[in-house]
Hints:
It is a single chain. The chain has helices spanning 58-65, 94-108, 120-131, 177-192, 199-212, 221-224, 256-263, 285-298, and strands at residues 21-23, 30-35, 42-46, 70-74, 113-118, 136-142, 242-247, 268-272. The chain is of the alpha/beta class. The protein has one domain (14-298): Rossmann fold (3-Layer(aba) Sandwich), CATH 3.40.50.1820. Strands 1-2-4-3-5-6-7-8 form an eight-stranded mixed β-sheet, sandwiched between helices. Helix 4 crosses helix 5.
Amino acid sequence: MTRLVPRGIGPADGDALGPERFAGDGDLRLCYQAVGDPADPTILLVGGVGSSMDWWPADLCAALAAPGRHAVRYDHRDTGRSTTCPPGAPDYTGRDVTEDGLRVLDALGVERAHLVGLSMGGAIVQELALEHPERVASATLMSTTRAFSGPDDAALPPSAPELAGLWDGPAPDPGDTAALIEAAVAEDRALTGRGDFDEARTRALASRAVERSIDPTAGTNHFAAEPGEPFVGTLADLRVPTLVVHGTEDPLFPGHGEALAAAIPGARLLLLERTGHQVPPPSSWDVLLPALLEHTTEHTLG
């Protein structure tokens, strides 16, 4: 099949970010891409559960790199072109998934980086910041909640009732590309809630994610994996400079951004209007990008 490459960098034009490379050793292969000068401070983008790196849009990666950053995105295990297990049979733990971010940094020769995590990726960033603060120059936690339990967890607002049953039922056949794309678009629409939802943009991202994946259904293994050795500590123990970014319309974790920022010493909170549980849409970038630039400049490597 011939692929037409659009001019400029679009949301799903991952080829414009440069070649796909692989980190890991032995049988483990973690696919990643980078844009920007490697001599600039590195921003490592850590995606959500079951999400390949395609859900960090290429135009967002380019916008992050433009002011002098080295932006890196990668496929979690069981997503994209990274090592993939049969659905229902993961051969790794949740701790392995967390530490894969360090494996990508090792492959790049990066000692410390600014970590930006979305949803499950936000939990991963919290865990790495707690256990490996020497590797984390700053943390940005997007559309996420606490990775460590607190005494007032029961007071956190529940998910919106509209999400009930969202993940019930069988997954589409892994060979049915159209059904897989439709399922991904429907899930993203539901998680966006009353936020800004661009169906054409989402469909482009979903199409690339499905077409790149070794098995587009294997990401469910993230739910099946054993947790592994626990991360010990509390959010009060975090000493990494932290920015919490949360959508005012997040239906999965409504109000959790405020609680998360309050639990981390010195954390700052940025609320994005018209944003749900999603990678911040372009309509928010005039607020998001300056905040990320300031956060990663203030705490950049000396």
